[in-house]
Amino acid sequence: MSDPRRSVTVALEGLEVSCRIGVSDEERREARRLLVDVRLAPLHAADHATDDLAETIDYAAVAATVAATAAAREYRLIERLATAIADRLWSAYALSALTVSVAKPSPPMAVAAAAARAEVTYRA
C-alpha cells in the first residue's frame, strides 16, 4: 500500500544522445551529441516492498525512448526536442510530474558557453 506522505522520483542524468539539431541547415547537417536529464515522479508511488521492476519506472526503457525521440527527426530548437521527449514520456507513464532538460554542449555562437540548456516541466 502506498504511503501518501512519501513520493518517489526516478531520474536519469547526462543521457548522451545523437541528434541533428540547430537553427541553420549547416548546423543540422551532422548529428551532434546532446545531454538529456529526465526526472519522473510516478502518479502512484508503490512502497517497493517487493523490489519488483514492474512496480516502478524502467529507466532503461525511458533512456531508449529519449534516444529514439532524438534520432527520429531533425529539430531546430532544443526546446522543441525537450517537449517532444516530454510528450512521449508523459503519455507512456502515469506521472504526477516530469522534467526533461536538454543541453547542447559548446553551442555555436559568438560568445563561448559550456552549454545551452532548455527545460520542460509537466505536472498533473
Keywords:
124 residues; alpha+beta; GTP Cyclohydrolase I, domain 2; four-stranded antiparallel β-sheet; 33% strand
What does this molecule look like?
With 124 residues, this protein is of the alpha+beta class. Helix content is 27%, strand content 33%. It has 3 helices and 4 strands. It has a 4-stranded antiparallel beta sheet with strand order 1-2-3-4, covered by helices on one side. The chain is elongated, with a radius of gyration of 16 Å. The model has no long low-confidence stretch (mean pLDDT 91).
> Structural class of the helices, strands and pairings?
alpha+beta
- Count of extended strands: 4
Q: Which band does the percent of strand residues land in?
A: 25-35%
Tell me the strand order in the biggest sheet. Answer: 1-2-3-4
What does the largest sheet look like?
4 strands, antiparallel
Q: Gap between N and C termini, in Å? A: 21 Å
Whole-number count of domains: 1
Question: What is the third-level CATH name, the topology?
Answer: GTP Cyclohydrolase I, domain 2
N-to-C series of helices and strands: EHEHHEE
Mean pLDDT: 91
Low-confidence stretches are none
